[in-house]
Specification:
Blueprint (H helix, E strand, L loop, with lengths): L5 E4 L15 H14 L3 E5 L5 H13 L4 E7 L2 H10 L6 E8 L2 H8 L3 H18 L3 E6 L6 H14 L3 E6 L6 H16 L6 E6 L6 H10 L4 E4 L13 H10 L1 H4 L10 H12 L16 E2 L2 H9 L17 E2 L7 H10 L6 H18 L4 H12 L7 E10 L2 E11 L2 E8 L3 H13 L4 E9 L8 E9 L2 E9 L2 H26 L1
Parallel strand pairs: 1-2, 1-8, 2-3, 3-4, 4-5, 5-6, 6-7, 7-8, 9-10
Antiparallel strand pairs: 11-12, 12-13, 14-15, 15-16
Helix pairs in contact: 1-2, 1-11, 2-3, 3-5, 5-6, 6-7, 7-8, 12-13, 14-15, 16-17
Amino acid sequence: MTDRLIIFDTTLRDGEQAPGIALSPEDKLAIATQLARLRVDVIEAGFAASSPGDFEAVRRIANEVRGPVIASLARTHPDDIDAAAEALKGAERARIHVFMSTSPIHMEQMLRMTPEEVLRSIEEGVRRARRYTDDVEFSPQDATRSDPDFVIEACRLAVEAGATTINIPDTVGYALPDDFVALMERVYAEVRGDNEDVIVSTHCHNDLGLAVANSLSAIKAGARQIEGAINGIGERAGNTSTEEIIMAVKTRQDYFEVEIGADTTQIFETSRLVSRLTGYPIQYNKAVVGRNAFAHESGIHQHGVLRARETYEIMDPESIGHRSMIVLGKHSGRAAFGDALSKMGIVLEDEDFERAFRRFKELADRKGEIGEEGLRAIVAEETTTHADVAELVSIHVEGGSDETPTATVTIRRNGEETSWVAEGDGMVNAAFVALQDAFDLPARLVDYRVSPLTSGADAMAEVNVVIQVGAETYAGRGVSTDVVEGSARAFVAAFNRVLATRAGALEEG
């Protein structure tokens, strides 16, 4: 592979144009510094002429960030170009990115200019930018809704005036891959031609969800620069996602046959920083950087990944600074459950493992996802009661603030199920009274604590109780997404301790 794909990141310019984002110069500098660690080739630091804040951000980035080329956007207006040049003075390497609309609707309704006037403005703007730097990029805005012949004419004129990068923007996300490739092939053949100093670029928007697909398709048509934004942020539906382009090319180098210089291990950190400073959350199933991008809940998938990561992961999550996650939920199997316990240092006998796994599946059906604390509580509950003589089958409580609560508990003992009904001062108390009848043990509740294990409306809780029977006290714990059920399980565990202790005393006697 001899061709190099240039990664042009516009998070700080086009990305910031997303509604609700207003980055300070300090925020922009922080992101630019991280983009330099990611080793993108070009950072479009802003639109210097658009505001004093943008000018200052471009100036600071140009002065303080080293490594990537630092670019500023500019219309073909002389004032825009002069402002960009002034802001970029301190850059190690500077680029002025000049643009002008070429579509009929833009020329007629927005610019109020004739095609001839547009061409003249393009030539003058590029020539002016070239006075300041030999790195000038030109973009015919709304190229994909323009007359292709006019796009070619405008781009040729820009090259003659000194542009070294010709960028074809799908400004409103209108293009389809086949259409876009056809246009890019024409630009490559008729504008670049044999001039190896000219780079053909793309800048695609995601209005039809095709920004990344169009950009990747363009590589085969000769594009050697792709413009995008971290997390795909930007106007309307956003831009091409920088991180998706990087990883697509890295993962499928056999297909694209281009080299890329990014340090992929910085992708995850860059994504999180941009999300935090912009306030834009990352969707859970976002490619490459989403929370679920390397998460596995299906038992079949978990089993495969535990055997060999490549069975269901085409990228190594560590290569982007991320990690695989085995998400324990209702679809998880014994292999994933056992692996999670092993990583926590928990080793169970077969019978205990089966009891804990059954309880895990019961709770996962309600909770959806169970983390480490929940697993530890499940194991503690099940392994401390493996010698129980009684098991809680179900509990049902009726009543509320206007009537006395009534609890119905069903206990399984020696393979037989029996139910008891009792009233109480509250739902938990009613369950306690019913279980005293079930075990035929008068007891007093000495201590009662509820500890949340997870957050949310369906949170799991661990209930710890201490009961007194005669002169002795006995502890029990229970885990559930329902506090009353968790309390009943804790009471059953404590009552079983009473029976086990008495049985042991009889054997000794």
